C-alpha cells in the first residue's frame, strides 16, 4: 500500500499498483504530465483518488482486472490525457466527481467505466467511448454536457440512466458498428447536435 495525504504530486514517470497492491491519493493535487503513467495492473490492484484535484495529460489506466477509483474529486483530463479501463474486469469509477474532458475517457477490450452522481463536461475534442464487445460506459444520475464525442464502437455499449444530457451544437452521440448500442433510460435530453446510429448500431430511448 502506498498513500499520499495533503501533498502536491507531479509525475513524469510511473505510479503503479500491481500484484494486488493499493495506491491511495487523498486530499492532494496531482499533475500527471504527458508521458506520466498511473495504473492499477492486475486483479485486486487498485488506485484510489479521494477529494483530489487531478490534472492529467498522461495515462491513468486500469488494466488486466485492476481498478481506478475517483471519489469527490475534480479531474481535468487534457488533450493528451487518457483515462481507460482496458481488458476484462478492469474498472474505472467516478463517484460524485467533476470531470472536464478534452482527452479520452473510455472502456476497451471488455473494460468498464462507471460515472455516478457526477458532473461531466465533455469538451470539444473530448472523447468518451466504449470500444469493443463487452466494453461498457455507464452514466448513473449524472449531469452531462457534450460538445465532443460520446461513442459506442465495434460492439461497445453506453447506458444513460436517470441522467440529464445537454448535447451542444458540435456534440455527437453515436452508436457506430454492428451490435454497438446506446440506451437512454429515464433520462432528459436537450439536443442541438447529433444523436445517431450508423453501420448497424442501435439507439434506444425509454
Distance, first to last CA: 44 Å
According to DSSP, the number of beta strands is 28
Helix content: under 10%
Strand order, largest beta sheet = 1-4-7-10-13-16-19-22-25-28
Residue stretches low in confidence (pLDDT < 50, at least 5 long) are none
Global morphology: globular
SSE ordering = EEEEEEEEEEEEEEEEEEEEEEEEEEEE
**Radius of gyration, whole Å:** 16 Å
The averaged pLDDT comes out at: 96
Strand percentage: over 45%
Helical element count? 0
Biggest pleated sheet:
10 strands, parallel
Which keywords apply here?
single chain, 206 residues, 10-stranded parallel sheet
Describe the structure.
With 206 residues, this protein is mostly beta strands. The strands form 3 sheets. It has a 10-stranded parallel sheet, with no helix packed on it. The chain has a 9-stranded parallel sheet with strand order 2-5-8-11-14-17-20-23-26, with no helix packed on it. It starts with a strand and ends with a strand.
Amino acid at each position: 500500500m502506498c498513500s499520499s495525504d495533503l501533498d502536491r504530486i507531479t509525475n513524469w514517470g510511473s505510479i503503479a499498483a500491481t500484484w494486488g497492491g493499493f495506491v491511495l491519493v487523498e486530499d492532494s493535487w496531482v499533475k500527471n504530465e504527458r508521458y506520466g503513467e498511473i495504473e492499477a495492473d492486475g486483479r485486486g490492484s487498485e488506485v484510489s483518488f479521494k477529494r483530489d484535484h487531478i490534472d492529467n495529460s498522461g495515462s491513468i489506466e486500469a488494466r488486466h482486472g485492476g481498478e481506478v477509483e475517483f471519489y469527490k474529486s475534480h479531474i481535468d483530463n487534457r488533450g493528451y490525457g487518457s483515462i481507460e479501463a482496458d481488458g476484462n474486469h478492469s474498472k474505472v469509477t467516478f463517484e460524485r466527481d467533476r470531470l472536464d474532458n478534452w482527452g479520452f475517457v473510455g472502456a476497451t477490450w471488455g473494460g468498464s467505466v462507471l460515472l455516478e452522481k457526477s458532473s461531466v463536461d465533455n469538451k470539444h475534442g473530448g472523447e468518451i467511448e466504449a470500444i469493443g464487445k463487452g466494453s461498457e460506459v455507464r452514466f448513473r444520475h449524472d449531469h452531462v454536457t457534450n460538445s465532443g464525442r460520446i461513442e459506442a464502437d465495434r460492439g461497445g455499449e453506453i447506458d444513460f440512466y436517470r441522467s440529464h444530457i445537454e448535447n451542444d451544437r458540435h456534440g455527437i452521440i453515436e452508436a457506430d458498428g454492428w451490435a454497438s448500442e446506446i440506451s437512454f433510460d429515464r433520462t432528459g435530453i436537450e439536443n442541438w447536435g447529433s444523436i445517431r446510429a450508423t453501420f448497424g448500431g442501435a439507439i434506444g430511448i425509454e
